[in-house]
Amino acid sequence: MGYDLDPAVPLERGWTALAAELGARTTEDKVAWRGGARFVERLARMAGPVAAGAWAVRADAGYLISGGLGGLGLALAEWLAERGARHVLLLGRSAPSSAARETLASLERRGVAVRIAAVDVADEAGLRRELDAWRRAGGPAVRGVVHAAGVWRDLPMAQMSPEDLSAVLAPKVAGTLALERCVGADLDFFLSCSSLSAVLPAHGQANYAAGNAFLDAHAQWRRAHGRPALSINWGPWSGIGFGASEHGRRAHERLESFGLRRIAPAPALAALGALLARGGAQATVVTVDWALLARVDAPLARTALLTEVAGGLVAPTASAEPLAGLGQRVVSAAPAEQETMVRDGVAEIIARVFRRPVSELRRDEPLPNLGLDSLMAVEIKNRIRAELGLDVPLARFLEGSTADGLADFTAAAWTEGAASRAAGGGAATAATEEFTV
User: Fold this and answer.
1) Considering the domain 326-422, what is its CATH architecture?
2) Which of 184, 248, 306, 307 gives 180 a disulfide partner, CB atoms 3.0 to 4.6 angstroms apart?
3) One fold for 52-288 and 326-422
């Protein structure tokens, strides 16, 4: 939970408000006080679409893209060229791939002057050198920035080292500050490619969520100082960048099992044009199957943040969901058979997530050794909750549990909750843990 006290209010009064908040029965997990008013966080749908064609760039200006040699950066370079850009500076830490070279050649055939700068955007001195070289080569003044640089090191917080944190924060935080100081004063736009993880942080992405939250805060800061800025919390893109890698495809398939759909580049770029034409500091672009999310991860769909966009798909209370599939079969079985059915059912769930027959699942091997990652852990957790009405702590998955160990834990939790179910208390709960960090 996060509480932001008003710095203009004496600390004693702030503590009083905080104590009252902690003692209240509320589902809010982020609260801020300003000027005696209490503010909470909500996602809200944008009203009144804006035509994407209403936004364009200038042929006599320069446009800088960090992460410019990655799939997303190159797609944005092409999109800027379609909008009229003729001078583009692409920042990247490594040499362009063969696919990137094809895109660069295509841009040049279309009359776009492209300069590649082998520099880490977090290296402010190196960035200044490249900008000086750009100007000496006759490049026009940079009038637009697209900050698309980023790296991933997904780990549970307990396993995250200082290096894992700093490596992910560097392009998002140090890179943003370097761009602000080097070119931020006189721009037509400053576009930051943030992530949905800053809005709905996924397990294992605390570092990535924090870095993207900085992009969002920077955009708000620029707007407050009269400077143009837009930070977009992108959902998963399909076919380019991370989404084009094998790991990315697997990760996005699991996100889709929660209802978070992939966005094709064309509609994503159309949304980008509309948002730049509209103005504003921050927006989220994601395709969500709310009904599926409500079925698979009802606690997430019930969060106060999603109240306005999720509508009435789930009850605002934590009432128990009806048991589905496996749970219904277990309830109908004789009490002596139920624990065995739960154990076998959990093994089946794990095998489905690993996409292999249960007969091939090494049930005595620690799940991380079998290739379990944080998204797979969340998928197993959510399937157990949907089928059996049991919440198993994510730590059970990520700290060396085997399939048999997880099955035993779940079966014991089922047995412990039998009296509650018999008395009409609903599904048992082993532990409550949201799909957040």
Assistant:
1) Orthogonal Bundle (1.10)
2) 184
3) no
Measured between alpha carbons, how far is 295 from 290 in angstroms, rounded to an integer? 9
Query: What is the spatial distance between Cα 169 and Cα 210, in angstroms, rounded to a whole number?
Result: 7
**Token code pair at residue 313:** 């798909």
Q: Which amino acid is at 397?
A: F
Return all residues near 259 (Cβ < 8 A) that are at least 6 apart.
288, 289, 290, 291, 292, 293, 294, 296
In angstroms, the Cα distances linking 373 to 153, 307, 368, 380, 401 are 12, 29, 7, 11, 13
> How far lies 297's CA from each of 34, 309, 404, in Å?
33, 15, 24
Reported as a pLDDT band with limits 50, 70 and 90, residue 434 is very low
Gap between the Cα atoms of 329 and 311, Å rounded: 31
Q: Do 203 and 436 form a contact (C-beta atoms < 8 A)?
A: yes
Task: Determine the Cα–Cα distance for residues 250 and 116; give it in Å rounded to an integer.
Answer: 31
Its pTM stands at 0.77
User: What type of residue sits at position 118?
Assistant: A
Better pLDDT: 356 or 342:
342
Residue 194 to residue 411: CA distance in whole angstroms: 41
- State how far the Cα of 223 lies from the Cα of 183, in Å rounded to an integer: 16
pLDDT at position 429, please? Answer: 37
Give the pLDDT confidence of 97-115 residue by residue, as tens digits.
Answer: 998 999 999 999 999 999 9
Q: Is the CB of residue 376 less than 8 Å from the CB of residue 291?
A: no
Helix (H) or strand (E) holding 273: helix 265-278
Most confident of 22-31, 127-136, 307-316, 348-357: 127-136
d(CA 262, CA 430): 32
| Domain residue ranges in the chain | 2-40, 52-288, 326-422
Strands 2-4 and 30-34: parallel
